[in-house]
Amino acid sequence: MHGVRQAKVDLLQIFYLMRLTRAMEERTRTLFLQGRVVGGVYTAQGHEATTVGAAMVLHDGDCIVPQHRDLGMHLVRGTSPRAVMCQWLARGNSPTLGRDGQIHIGDMHHGIVPMISMLGESLPVACGVAMTMKMRKRANVVLASCGDGATNTGPFHEALNFASVQKLPLVFVIENNGYAYSTPSYKQFNVQHLSERAKAYNIPGESVDGNDVLAVMESVGRAVENARSGAGPSLVECKTFRVRGHSEADKADYVPKELREEWLKKDPLKRFETYLEHEGLLSARAKAEIEERVRAVCDDAVHYAEQSPEPEAATVAEYVFAPDGPIAIVGESGADDPRYVNALDQRIGAPFSTISRTEEAISRR
Ligand SMILES: Cc1ncc(C[n+]2csc(CCOP(=O)(O)OP(=O)(O)O)c2C)c(N)n1
After folding, report:
1. Shortest-distance Cα residue to atom 22 of ligand 1
2. How far from the centroid of its chain's Cα atoms is residue 169's Cα?
3. Probe ligand 1: pick from 119, 172, 240, max atoms within 8 Å of CB?
4. For residue 114, which of 106, 221, 267, 334 is within the disulfide window of CB 3.0 to 4.6 Å?
5. CB 207 within 8 A of CB 237
6. Distance (Å) from CA 154 to ligand 1 centroid
7. Which residues line the pocket of ligand 1, CB cutoff 6 A?
8. 135 C-alpha vs ligand 1 centroid, how far in Å?
9. Which InterPro entries does this one have (predicted)?
10. In this structure, how many other beta carbons lie within 10 angstroms of the beta carbon of residue 6?
């Protein structure tokens, strides 16, 4: 049925990670309703096959540049459930030390670049990471995701163009859930499939059922291995549905009832569970064990976060500015040529020197 051939244990691990993703978000919603979450809650119920499937095909040393509905990718890459729960409860030991209550987190040890809140802006950053991998001749790949709404921004198109021209080891995954907040697809863009965008940049593009985890793994896996082999970037559109509102403050009553019901029948977890049972890979006992493991991990994460201290009020201004001042200081401190590139040069070192010398050579022509 699927070209993805995984050992039984891997398929059950995928199922576990999808279940964990959903359960973590359900816990967070409960905490939110109890008034224990600081800030809004943005969930991705319905995206689990896309987020878990896409990240599962990566190797150690690869990088993800996730968006705001990618808890599944974080969990696959190794972000701990405790850290995620501390983030949502804005604890002083959370990845952002309580400065942000959202999934705007990253961890370069796990190859996770923190997302930028402005839609589309993470994608040029993903190009930079992929360019670094290429310049350092590393056999690694970057996977960058965005929503359908983000594809209508300038940075999305700049990133696709740049990645194509530079043949970067980069895979763009679009999580097309049919809406950018309340704006439906037909009011956003005039193509049937967002994978058609790839044609304009002369890169491969394909659309896939984003609620079928094995189909996502097959399609994204192909794109990742192409990128790894030096064939350049690809675009994969995963068609899915956001079951809940944009955030918990949104009832999503702009989504027609029939459309919602149609998508609910395609629930990615239920579908994968049925597939595993049909293939004889998920016994009642294995399912119960997975449920128990998910419950225990969520209980532990919530307990750990609730025991963790809130940030100290006196430290509120810390970690907001770079400790040794802005780059512009290099110019003010009497450098011979106080231009931005030279400031970067001094601050960061050799790679920028090369770029600045190249720029000078070009500007003299
Ligand atoms: C440039 C920009 N405009 C508006 C917003 C506010 N905003 C945050 S998420 C979002 C909807 C994004 O839709 P989409 O890209 O389709 O992703 P989804 O939330 O559906 O997963 C909006 C409008 C923003 N963060 N950045």
Report:
1. 181
2. 17
3. 119
4. 106
5. yes
6. 14
7. 69, 117-119, 147-150, 153, 175, 177, 179-181, 242, 246
8. 32
9. DH_E1 (IPR001017), PDH_E1_Alpha_Subunit (IPR050642), THDP-binding (IPR029061)
10. 15
Of 163, 213, 168, whose CA–CA distance to 54 is shortest?
213
The class (CATH top level) of 8-315 is alpha beta
Compute the distance between CA of residue 282 and CA of residue 269 in angstroms, rounded to an integer.
13
The segment(s) of the chain belonging to CATH 3.40.50.970 are 8-315
Ligand 1 atom at shortest distance from the alpha carbon of 146: 15
Mutation to probe ligand 1, out of 172, 181, 254 (largest number of atoms < 8 A from CB): 181
Q: Is 62 helix (H, G, I), strand (E, B) or coil?
A: coil
For CA atoms 298, 301, 304, 305, the dihedral sign is negative
